[in-house]
Design a protein that fits this description.
This protein has about 130 residues and is α+β, with helices and mostly antiparallel strands. It contains four helices and eight strands. The chain folds into two domains: about 70 residues, VC0802-like; about 60 residues, Alpha-Beta Plaits. The protein is about 30% helix and about 45% strand. It has a four-stranded antiparallel sheet with strand order 2-3-1-4, covered by helices on one side. A hairpin with a 2-residue loop joins strand 2 and strand 3.
């Protein structure tokens, strides 16, 4: 799975502009996170047509970055996320981003972005949903 991230100087209406660009292109946003950190606005999203979304955002003037994300399944219980992140930390893997995408009937789906992807995958192979 691939994520698109846009980081800009702090600005109002960023989500409205991003969603309009993608909507006008007929692209469905599947997941979106947005936040302001100090003087920056950041939007991270996934879309049904990744390549078209990335190109549409870049054509609209956004400095859109891309990153691979790994999906894992966890038990939805206290400490489950801590066990995974500890495993990665002890393996010397830096987790760049983590998002809980879905929780249902005792299970959770989590998206992770990490450095040293091949080494990271070996450490969490038993939890993988997909790494494409």
């Amino acid at each position: 799975m691939k994520e698109i991230t846009i980081v800009t100087p702090l600005q109002d209406g960023l989500i409205a502009r991003v969603s309009k660009v993608l909507g006008d292109a007929g692209i469905n946003i599947e997941n979106l996170d947005a936040m302001d950190v100090k003087q920056f606005s950041m939007v991270t999203l996934t879309a049904d047509r990744y390549n078209d979304a990335l190109q549409s955002l870049r054509d609209a003037g956004f400095d859109a970055l891309t990153e691979d994300v790994v999906l894992i399944h966890l038990k939805d219980e206290p400490g489950a996320l801590a066990r995974v992140t500890q495993r990665l930390y002890e393996g010397g893997i830096h987790v760049r981003s983590i998002r809980i995408l879905h929780r249902q009937v005792g299970e959770a789906m989590v998206a992770l972005s990490m450095d040293r992807s091949q080494e990271a995958l070996a450490l969490i192979q038993d939890l993988l949903v997909s790494n494409t």
